[in-house]
User: What shape does this take?
Amino acid sequence: MKTAAQPSKNNRLTQVNAVVDEVRGELVARQSDEGHWVFDLEADATIPAEYILLNHFLDDIEEDVEASLGDYLRNIQGEHGGWPLFHGGNLDISASVKAYFALKMIGDDIEAPHMKRARKAILAKGGAARGNVFARFQLALYGEMPWRAVPVMPVEIMFLPRWFPFHLSKVSYWSRTVIAPMLVLMALKPTAKNPRGVHIAELFTIPPEAERRYNTNPTGSILGACFLGLDHVLRALEPFIPTPLRRAAIERATAWFTERLNGEDGLGGIYPAIANSVMAYRAMGYSIDHPDYAIALKAVRKLLTLNDERKFCQPCLSPIWDTSLATLAMMEAGEPANGPVISKACAWMKDRQILDVKGDWAETKPDVAPGGWAFQYWNDYYPDVDDTAVVAMGLHRAGMGTHETPLKRATDWIIGMQSKNGGWGAFDVDNAYYYLNHIPFADHGALLDPPTSDVSARCVSMLAQFSTRKDHATLKQGLDFLRNEQEPDGSWFGRWGCNYIYGTWSALCAFNAAGEDMSAPHIRKAVEWLKSRQREDGGWGEDGATYWEEHRDEVKASTPSQTAWALMALMSAGEIDSQTVQRGVDYLLQTPRKDGRWDEKYYNAVGFPRVFYITYHGYAAYFPLWALARYRNLISGNASTVIHGM
Assistant: This one.
């Protein structure tokens, strides 16, 4: 029986129709002339702060841009005085040190109230010496701390064979693209130009030269202690490396990342790798008009968002991900598959398929033909399994047959990228060399790309949507992987979206698409978990802190994107008529929105759990639209089953 505050089913459906049509129209208006969508991708203070520091490393100062980034950094400073990794989060020492340094670099008075608060908060957490490896590396480039503050990573590792315990192929794509130019910088140890002579000695509790405990055992294990001992040995041996060998190793590293430079989309398509490539070229003496240096710097500049609303630097660009998801949402909302909007989007995506380049993934799968899609505009060496599955589902739903070349190539590639345990990682196969998490360099905890529930669920959904038999070995192993990954409370971990709601949505969509009995105990356990997480306002929310076990259940507020995931998960499990779903729909109807996007200030995704958080500004547009449209379609069609992979 509905409460007085709830609209009747007919009134609710009328409201849903109006909102779906309105938001669909707004999304149509946002589509580019080429056919794609791209929304801003926002991270924490680290990226805009590093952008400023990069300019001063190069002595290539952009006064107006840096002033805008300074405004951004001041506006996101936390009440605790430092800078968090996500909206409303605790102080993160690495992000806070970089933000403070950047603000001082552009002229902020250290006695200004915001700088005094920041300094006090940073010192209370142990000071700049307690930053992670990447923060200490940045400060070493400026001479703010000695190079012994950074773990030894000799550039000669470029010569190590693949069977050796450490090899670039054994770490994630993002790690290897960041590390390769970083090795050159660690070998050459350049000093930033720093034209204004800015330093941050005031952020150290003891003088940096006197500090003796920079590098620590990241896991506290015996293996970690052994690796820390090895670091001491390598540090003692490094000065004796022959100069010709070092020169050859630098050339090998430079050739490696230059081959993957990726034009104006940049090395790996991600800010840290691109910035490191720029600094490495300058450290090697490349002139500003050298084509490799010039294109790498252009790639950095391309990441700036300088609109009237907000000005910041993005960690990367997300056009293929945004377009694939928006396309599925638009079709759910009634945009005809053969109409101009969807046709343009599909044509654009089809043209971005990587068919000729065997990227780093081929190190472990040399016999698999390329056929994936990247996350960014272009990133041929690093197609993304997640993007590939979603793009393929969109093209298929729009009418492309599974035997047509794009989908046949995508299917073969996805099947070839399955790991031995039945799951899928985002970019590599069997990238689960967990012992490497114990090396001092891995203190950030984001070195590897093992199979995860959310990416695996997407692959299962794609294969199932393409009518792959449930007893097909690939699909069967994928389903077994998902069952084994279920948490004791019934949820699934969300590696790339916050957090268990995202993982559970992904898994339930996959099970439904594959024809799983949605009354099975493990499915009902997931449904009950989702119902138990609904908030009083009818929505769902999950904080970035849930990636720490002690904060697993933390919630600050309901968010439209997380509510949409929960609703689509429940509808996949046949809960269309449940009061839980109705209340969630009402939450979306009542939450304010502007220009086709629901209000959402909380971060909704992660680059690396506990280390690097992001918010997709598109999520608050196409996911709520998708959920409301699905509700409308199921109610209007008197159906309880979702027939698509997502």
Summary: Strands lie at 41-42, 304-306, 311-313, 593-594, 597-598, 605-608, 612-616. The mean pLDDT is 95. The longest helix spans residues 9-30.
